[in-house]
Amino acid sequence: MLRFATPIFFMIVGFIYLIATLNLPKARLGDPNGPMYFPIIIAVLIIVSSAVYFFQEWKLRKEEFKEFQLIKEGRAPLYLIATIVLMLIYTFLFERIGFLYATMLFLGGLMFLLNGRKRWIYNIIIAVAFSFITWYAFAELLQVSLP
């Protein structure tokens, strides 16, 4: 039964996302349903891919399921908990200090967690470069307002 937890979880997430998307306010300019198209596509893709994943797991239901055992081994529980904590901190900081600085801190923390301190210059370069390129692409090129 544990084998089906992930596809069922993401199928529920897809339906919640779809319902939330359908409740978005209508646009005042242009196509009134315009803001809904991309999120609906994403929600449908999540639901369809979860259904495909569910049926793939259904075919393997008589075989032993070992995937969740890997989470309990080694440093995986530490990485999992630390990543969740970093995401919560990122969520808290996002509105307060903005996308660019919050993303740099989040990616930097995640890179240091996964790569360690030995590759500190690599971690900093990736965190700063990715954050800046992403910010530039959305804020300047696509004219998307970021906090």
TrEMBL record:
Keyword Transmembrane helix tagged: yes
InterPro entries assigned to the protein according to its UniProt record, in alphabetical order: DUF1468 (IPR009936)
Keyword field contains Transmembrane helix: yes
Highest taxon in the source lineage: Bacteria
Pfam hit, one: TctB
Transmembrane segments: 7-24, 36-55, 76-93, 99-115, 120-138
Domain DUF1468: from-to ranges: 7-147
UniProt entry keywords in alphabetical sequence: Membrane, Transmembrane, Transmembrane helix
Protein name: Tripartite tricarboxylate transporter TctB family
Species annotation: Sporosarcina pasteurii (Bacillus pasteurii)
